[in-house]
Backbone:
């Protein structure tokens, strides 16, 4: 499994830390529907990668742009930390946003895939 700056990870936390879409819109919705916050977040858990990641049981490669507003690192790390069956390979890019490592990610991922797909 490979994920370059995975989207919709740690949705509840992401709503709190970024104003990038779609989290901006989710925050605006919750601001108007204050009494429904718990129910809405519970429904969003069904598509939250941090909730689903605990099912990952194969080798995993994940990149994280630590300056990413679109996919906040705290949400991605929530997903990474939920993976317990394997130790995921994580590539972080300290000064990059949503592009993370860009072409460098491609080259790194190609090598990682070759190492993990070759018998």
Residues:
């Amino acid at each position: 499994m490979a994920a370059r700056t995975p989207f919709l990870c740690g949705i509840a936390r992401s709503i709190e830390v970024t104003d990038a879409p779609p989290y901006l819109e989710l925050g605006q919705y919750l601001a108007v529907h204050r009494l429904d916050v718990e129910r809405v977040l519970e429904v969003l858990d069904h598509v939250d990668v941090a909730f689903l990641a605990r099912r990952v049981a194969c080798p995993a490669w994940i990149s994280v742009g630590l300056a990413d507003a679109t996919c906040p690192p705290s949400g991605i790390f929530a997903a990474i930390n939920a993976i317990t069956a394997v130790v995921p390979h994580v590539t972080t890019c300290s000064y990059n946003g949503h592009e993370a490592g860009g072409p460098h990610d491609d080259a790194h991922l190609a090598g990682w895939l070759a190492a993990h797909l070759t018998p």
